[in-house]
Amino acid sequence: MIAIERGDSWVHNFGDAPETGQLYEQWTLEVAAGAAYLDRWLIDEPGTIPDDAIVNLEQETQRIRVLDAVQRARALVEVEDTPEASAYVPSRDDFWEPPSPNFGLDL
């Protein structure tokens, strides 16, 4: 996408691009939503998407959708930075105690 390659200032709203393939592709789709918004409303030199002047209800609705895209894009970067939790897989040597039928109730 040209805006990403040029380093347009409004793209910074979407956070840093993830490095991995699938997350990067999703991130570029979210940025494309921003590009479509700017193109639709003929905004030539935006500083940031949140600062745009609103003309009517339709534009406000689309702007909210783009702001949601910004949040999703930023979340992708956070997902990429989160270390994967290792799953615990019990081995045959692990001690397993069956549940006790005694619930500790004195009747």
Brief synopsis:
By secondary structure, this protein is mostly helical. It has helices spanning about 1-5, 20-40, 55-80. The longest helix is centred in the middle third of the chain and has 25 residues, at about 55-80.
What structural category characterises the helix and strand content? mainly alpha
**Average of pLDDT:** 79
SSE series: HHH
Number of helices: 3
Report helical residue fraction: 40-55%
Query: Rough shape?
Result: globular
Poorly predicted regions are none
Major sheet summary line: none
Question: Which SSEs are present, and which pair or pack?
Answer:
Blueprint: H1 2-6, H2 21-40, H3 57-81
Could you please describe the fold and organization of this structure?
47% of the residues lie in helices and 0% in strands. It is mostly helical. The mean pLDDT is 79.
